Amino acid sequence: MDSSTFIGFISIIMAGFTTGIGCMFPALAQGKAVASALASLAQQPDSSDVITRTLFVGLAMIESTAIYCFVLSMILIFANPFWNHFMEQIAK
Amino acid sequence: MKLSPDETIYWQYDFVVINATLVWTWVVMLLLVSVSVLVTRNLKTDLKISRWQCVLEMIVTSINQQIKEVGLQHPEKYIGFIGTLFLFIATANLLSIVPFYLAPTGSLSTTAALALSVLIAVPFFGIQQTGFGSYLKTYLKPTVFMLPLNIISEASRTLALAVRLFGNIMSGGVIISILLSITPFIFPIIMNALGMLTGIIQAYIFTILATVYISAAINNTNKSETIKVNNV
Lengths: 92, 232
Hints:
Chain A is an all-alpha fold. Helices cover about 90% and strands about 0% of the residues of chain A. In chain A, helix 1 (about 5-45) packs antiparallel against helix 2 (about 50-80). Chain B has a two-stranded antiparallel ribbon with strand order 1-2. Chain B is mainly α. Chain B has helices at about 20-40, 50-70, 75-95, 110-130, 130-135, 145-180, 185-230, and strands spanning about 10-15, 15-20. In chain B, helix 2 (about 50-70) crosses helix 3 (about 75-95), helix 4 runs parallel beside helix 7 and helix 6 runs antiparallel to helix 7 (about 185-230). The termini of chain B are far apart. Classes of the chains: A mainly alpha, B mainly alpha. The interface between A and B is medium-sized, with 15 and 19 residues.
């Protein structure tokens, strides 16, 4: 296996793993956050404004970790710096 | 596949490049400015106001309300910055139903610029409210050893703001373009509707986070002063 195949092979596998693992845990965390927000909404419907706003901000914080992983795997697939470097080496 | 509107180039001469991000940012800006100029040209305080003035008043009042709820006491000072952020991001995301439109928020340069303006606005409002020295002292809290961590948190939250908005809008675009090649008829429309919902939520979150950061900078310094007064 020459190194161009190797770089592509590892990049694609790692892109899949990055999004896969990186979506799993934020999904669990978001489920937990929404569940407890719903429980507290049922207990105190009066303070729904504060709970909803805090929930949205918290969800955004949790979701950003998943987004980081997604951006990373997009970089690995579409704008891979090692692949580009290797292609430049070949072109020389 | 094009990841960001930066890669769509409309006109190029040597190093001067006019890409989709620039064009559509100016379109959004022109739209916002011309609508607000047209509406605010003849404002009335009568009982009967024009319907556009009513819409604008509702928007301004609800943004003021949201700012106040986060903990800033005089929202009039901050709505110029915070309200503009919200209106720009929301308009930029909502216009995605227009054909051939590419949301400028799907480019990392736009979101980085917005996040940098938040990074500058936080010390600006903090110093304006409490003075230079007492603002700098908030970096030394709770102890001097927290100084590097405070600086790191400032940098990382700016990065998070930029990448969060960019990632959400970009992922919506990527998913739509993948679906267009698999199921070209119904599903892209549903995903587009979902993208508009995410766009509004992301605009709200960006704005609320900017407000929370500003109010944290201001309220921290205020708290330290009251504690000092109590000690004396």
